[in-house]
Amino acid sequence: MKETPDLYGAYPRLEDYQLAELTPLGERRTTSAGEVLQQAGESSDEFIVVLDGTVAIVQDTTEPERVIAVHGPRRFLGEIGMLTGQQFFLSAVAQEPGEVLAVPPEQLRELVSRDPRLADLILRAFLIRRSLQLTLGAGFAIIGSRFSADTRRLRDFAARNRLPHHWIDLENDAEAERLLRELGLGRDDTPVVIWRGQVLRNPDNERLATAVGLRTAMPVRSVCDLIVVGAGPAGLAAAVYGASEGLATVVLDSVATGGQAGTSSRIENYLGFPAGVSGAELADLAEIQARRFGAEFIVPATAVALLERDGHHVVQLEDEARISSRAVLIASGVRYRKLDLPGLDDVTSTSVYYAATELEANLCRHDPVVVVGGGNSAGQAAVFLAQHAAQVVLVVRSNELGQDMSRYLADRIERTERIAVLVHSEVRAASGDRMLDEVVVEDLKTGQRHVEPAKALFVFIGSLPHVRWLSDQIALDDRGFVRTGSQLPGRRQVLETSRTGVFAAGDVRSGAVRRVAAAVGEGALAVRMVHEHLGRYS
C-alpha cells in the first residue's frame, strides 16, 4: 500500500536529529507482515517509530477491515489516548517485513521535556488524528433510534468525551436490522453499543466509559490533598497548577473534561490563541498537561454529597464510592436553562440541543435551524452552525445584538449572510411530528407572531448552578450560586466558601465573571489558597 500523504499535519515525518535523539532511548525490533503492533481495545506502553517497511492503521471492527492511513519510515504510530490513558480505537498492522523503534513512555517524556519542538510535533499529530477519527466514524458502534432519548444520551456522551464512534440509525440504515439479527437482538433491546466483541445493552455512561477504557480506577491513596469537582476551565486550571506544585490532586466530572467551554466550536477571545481554539482542543491540552504533572482524572464520576470525616472533606460519588481530601475545590459549573414551550416535549429528544458541536451540526446539515439566546454561547453557536445549516435564525430577547454579547462576535454575526437576527423577540411554541418542523416567534414590541421553519432548536438562555450535590453543607446565594469571600461573615479568602478548606471557582461561584479566562484565573488562584490552608492546618 502507498503511504498516506500528510495533508493536515497528522502524519509528520521525524527529522534526522529527532530520530537520532530517540534511537538510543528505545529498542529496535524487526516486524513481519501481518504483525499487530498496536491493538484496538488495548492500551500501549510504547511509542513506536517506523524505521523500515510500512504500517497500516486499520479499523478492524468492520467487515471488511478499513484502512485509515499507511505510515512509512520515520513516521510514528499512536494517538491521543496514549497521553490520557485511553485504549486505542484503531489497530496498527505491519504490511511487510520491516523494522520499528519502540521507546518506553518514561524515556519519551524525559526527552520531550528537553525538546519542546518534538513535543509540539507529537501532540499536534495526536490531536489531529483524533479529530480525523471522529470525522471518519472510527471506533465503537452505537445502534439505536433517533427517537430514543437513551440513544441521544450515549451519542452526546461519546461526543463530549471525543470518543471515536459511529451511529447506526435504526430508521435509515439497512445495516442496523442485519446487525441486530446477527446479534440475536430486537429493536426493543436498543440502543446497544458494540466494541471489540462486547455488546452492551443500553449501558449507562459509566459502563460505556469503562468498556472503552475512559474511566480509570479510584485513587489508591487514603487521603489526597485536593479534590476538584468539575473539569471545566476552572477545574482544569486547578488540576494543572495543583499537581505541578506537588499537591496530590484528583479531578472528578460527571460527563467530560471541558465543561460548557468544551462544547464551544471556537473560543476567539482567549489569551494566546489569536486564531481561536475549540473548546474540545483546549480541554484536551489542559488534561494532558495536568496528567503530565500527576493529576488523576475520574470521568465520568458524579458527586452526590459533600461530607466530613476524621477532620477531612469527603466527596461521595453516585456509585457510593468516597474520596477523602484535605481541601476541595467546587468547580462544578452550570447547566443551561431549558425552554418551556407548547409542543417542545414532543420533539426534545430529536431536535432540541444545548450545545453546538460537530455532532449537532452533522444532524442538521443543510436544514434551517433556530438559535435562542443573546450571549456569547448563542453567538458562537450561530456562527458555527452557519457553516453547516441552510439558514440560521438567531432569536434575541434584548433590543440589540451587542447588549449581552462580545462586540467582535456581534459584528461577525451581522456580516454572516446565512444568519438572520430577530431582536426583541422570543420563541413561543414549537411543532412537529416527533421531529421539529417549525417554531412560532413573537416580536415583544409589536406582539406580532410568525412562523420560522426549523429542523433543530438550539437553546442558550442562561444557566443554573450545579449545586444539588452540596445539599445544605455550603452557603448559597438566592439564585443557588456558591457564596465566597466577602459575601460571607468573618474574614475569609476571596474564593473560600462557608466551610473552611472548601473553595469555589468558575461559573458556579456567586459573582463570577463568566468567561473562560476568568475561570482559568480563579482555578489557579484557588490552588494558592489551598496551599495557604494546608500550610496553616497541616
From TrEMBL:
InterPro entries: cNMP-bd_dom (IPR000595), cNMP-bd_dom_sf (IPR018490), FAD/NAD-bd_sf (IPR036188), FAD/NAD-binding_dom (IPR023753), Ferredoxin-NADP_redctase_2 (IPR050097), RmlC-like_jellyroll (IPR014710). It holds the Pfam family Pyr_redox_2. Signal peptide: none annotated. The keyword Metal-binding does not apply. It catalyses: [thioredoxin]-dithiol + NADP(+) = [thioredoxin]-disulfide + NADPH + H(+). Keywords: Flavoprotein, Oxidoreductase. It comes from the Bacteria. One of its GO terms (molecular function) is thioredoxin-disulfide reductase (NADPH) activity. The keyword Flavoprotein applies. Residues 10-129 form the Cyclic nucleotide-binding domain. PROSITE patterns: CNMP_BINDING_3. This is Cyclic nucleotide-binding domain-containing protein. It comes from Kribbella jiaozuonensis.
